[in-house]
Specification:
Blueprint: E1 9-13, H1 19-28, E2 34-38, H2 50-66, E3 71-74, H3 77-90, E4 95-97, H4 98-109, E5 114-119, H5 121-126, H6 128-137, E6 142-147, H7 151-156, H8 163-177, E7 183-187, H9 195-202, E8 207-209, H10 212-225, E9 238-241, H11 245-256, E10 263-265
The protein binds D-glutamic acid.
């Protein structure tokens, strides 16, 4: 396998949510071609066992490597939390993922070092964010996490500013607010779309931090280091999904903030 600057970046997720990361990468690296994989037939991953998620992640990694990608971007927090060793062990190209990016950017903005994490049940159970915060921030970081499984379906329904979503958010976040946090990590691909509503629920003293921009910055740095940045545009992006390509396109354009021209169905 030989990669040069013209090869695409592979971005993958359990479904549509990783498009929040794809969007940040497109904004930061407008000349790069993206091959996106969303496992829409098997989403959600956030309530599945680590073994199952690791098996699915290995299949997707194989698929993207066969597309000759020069960089793998694990946009899905759940896969990054429970399947990173499996992905990294298969990949001859660099792998970057959302959890260390999110933890580092939270540490960069938190003054009190009292940091909350909201994520899927699998990500929370893995304690991956707590471990990353301790690794990069030391043992005095106070981390509190909360699984918010209802947020993913609410976002997919488009209920970004709906009274039901607000009620759910208040229910999930009320106990965390008592912890006197100054930063809240949005540890799931879907949550950045809820940022305006969550900001109202947590109030101005808590800063919301998502990983998408940090991932795009990291992708740019890795490509520059390896001399693999593509300089001529415009790029053509391809989106592979395992089910319901029309629904993916409809919801996905909301996540991506631009039209998706090439959506393909892949049987796995
Ligand atoms: N992509 C997943 C994540 O970031 C959310 C959706 C799912 O549960 O598959 O954790």
């Amino acid at each position: 396998m030989h990669c040069d600057a013209t090869c695409p970046i592979g971005i993958f997720d359990s479904g549509v949510g990783g498009l929040t990361v794809a969007r940040a990468v497109m904004d930061r690296l407008p000349n790069e071609r993206i091959v996106y994989f969303g496992d829409t037939a098997r989403v959600p991953y956030g309530v599945k066992s680590p073994d199952t998620v690791a098996r699915y992640a290995a299949q997707i990694t194989r698929f993207l490597l066969a597309k000759n990608v020069k960089l793998l971007v694990v946009a899905c927090n759940t896969m990054a939390a429970v399947a990173l060793p499996a992905i990294a062990s298969m990949s001859p190209v660099p792998v970057i993922e959302v959890i260390s990016a999110g933890a580092k950017s939270a540490l960069a903005v938190s003054k009190s070092r009292r940091i909350g994490i909201i994520a899927t049940p699998s990500t929370v159970a893995s304690r991956a964010y707590e471990k990353a915060l301790e690794l990069y921030g030391g043992p005095d970081v106070h981390a509190v996490s909360k699984a918010c499984p209802l947020f993913v379906p609410l976002v997919e329904e488009g209920w970004l500013d709906h009274p039901a979503t607000r009620m759910v958010a208040e229910e999930y976040l009320r106990p965390m607010l008592a912890e006197d946090l100054d930063t809240l990590i949005l540890g799931c691909t879907h949550y950045p779309l809820l940022a305006p509503l969550l900001a109202q629920v947590v109030g101005p003293q808590v800063r919301l931090q998502d990983s998408a921009t940090a991932m795009a910055t990291r992708a740019a740095a890795v490509l520059a280091e390896l001399n693999l940045a593509r300089n001529d545009g415009p790029p053509r992006h391809i989106f592979h999904v395992t089910d319901m390509p029309l629904r993916f396109r409809e919801i996905g354009e909301r996540f991506l903030g631009r039209p998706m021209e090439d959506v393909r169905l892949e049987k796995m």
